[in-house]
Amino acid sequence: RTFSSASLLTLFSNGPLFFWASEVDQMAFCLTARSALLLLFLFSVACACFEDVDCWLNGDCINGFCQCDAAWDGPDCSILAELASFQLWPSPLGTPQNVSELASSWGASLLYSAADDQWHAFFDVVCAAYTWLHVQAAVIVHATASAIEGPFEFHDVALPKQSINPHVVQAPAGTYLLAHRRRHESTSFPSCTGAYNVGHEYPVLETGISRRPAHPSDPYCDGTNGATFSLAYSQTLNGPWMCHDVIIPVNGSEHNPNPSLMFQPDGSVMLAYTVVVAASPTNTTSFISIAAAPAWNSSVYKPVGPLYITNQTGEDPFLWRSRRGYHVVFHKFGPPFVGGYAVSPDGTTWRSVPTSIYNLTVSWGDAGSTDFIRRERPEMLFNPDGSIRGLLTGCELFEDNGHSSLSVYTPIRQAG
Which residues sit opposite 344 in a β-bridge? Predict the structure, then answer.
C-alpha cells in the first residue's frame, strides 16, 4: 500500500491515532506513534523525492518519484543519458606528417550561427610533443562545420599562444564573448592547430609572448594589469577579437578562473569560476565559485552566495539555467575524479551530487568504446527550447601530460 506524505504526517501523535487512507482503499488503521514513525521512515526510503530539487532539477517529483527529463537517467535523475560520441578535434580528416606536428586538444566550446548556417567551434590546442598538462604554447583554434558532429574544418587561430579554456556565448545585444584563461609565462615552444588536412600546421617556433588583440588598458590581454580573467569580444564569430579584462575581488585566494558565463533574462551576467586555495604549505586545491555583474563589460564581477558552492574540490565549471533553476557541471578532483555536478533553485543556495553524472567511458557506437584516464573540461550544448542536446569534454587516453588528448562531442538522449 502507498500513502501520501500529507496523510503520513498526521501519524505523529502521543498515542493511538485513527486516520483515513482514502487514496488506497478507504481502509481505516489504528497505529501507535512508534509504528507511525517507522512507516514514515520506510516511506522516505522507498521514495526518491519529496520536491523537484531531490531530482537535481532534472525532472519533476511526482507522487514521491522522479519523472526525469529525456536527457537524464537514474532514480534521482543524476546520470546523463549519453549516446555514441564523435571526435571533433584534432581533425579526423588527416594524419600528421611527423610527430612534431601532432596536436592535442583539451576541450571545446561550440555555438551555432544562423547567419552562415554553420557550427563554430573553439578548441584548446597544443603541440602534443611539447605540452605539459595541455597548457604550454596553447592556442584557441576556430573551426567550422555544417553539422554539430563535424567534420570541422580549420578557419583561423582565434586567440594565439598561451590562451586556454575557451567558453563562447552571445550577449543579448548580439556581441560574441569568448571567455578564456590567459597563461602568463612566455615560451619558445611551437604552436600547432590540429588541422592536418590543410597542411599549414607545422610547428613554427615563436619566442616571447605572441600577439594579442589590442586593448587600451591591457594591450596583450594577459592580466598584467591585475585582471582576474579576460573576455575577448567581437561582432562576428570570425573576429577580430578585442579584450575586456575583469576583476573578481576575493581576498586571500588565487584565481585560476576557467570562466564560464551565462546571461540572465534581465541582461545581467552570472559567472562560474575556479578559486585556488592553499591545501597545505606545499600544495593547493581549488573550488567552484559564482560571481555576477549588471553587464558583461563591467570591470568588476562580485561574488554571489557562499564562497564555494560545494565542499567538493574541482575546476573547469560550466554554468547554465533551466526552467527549474541553476546548474554547474565541473571536473571533480575527488573519486571517481569526473563529472561533478551542483544545482541551485535560486542561484545562491547550492547542493552537489555525491557521485558523478558521467564516467570515463566514451562510446563510439558500432566502433566500440574507449576508457579514458581523464575526461574533463565539460560544457553542455542546448536545443532552442533550452533542453540539453549534448556534452563536450576533453578526453585523455594515457597519463602522458596531455599528449594523447582530444575534444569529444557526446549527444544526449532526446525526448520522443
Answer: 326
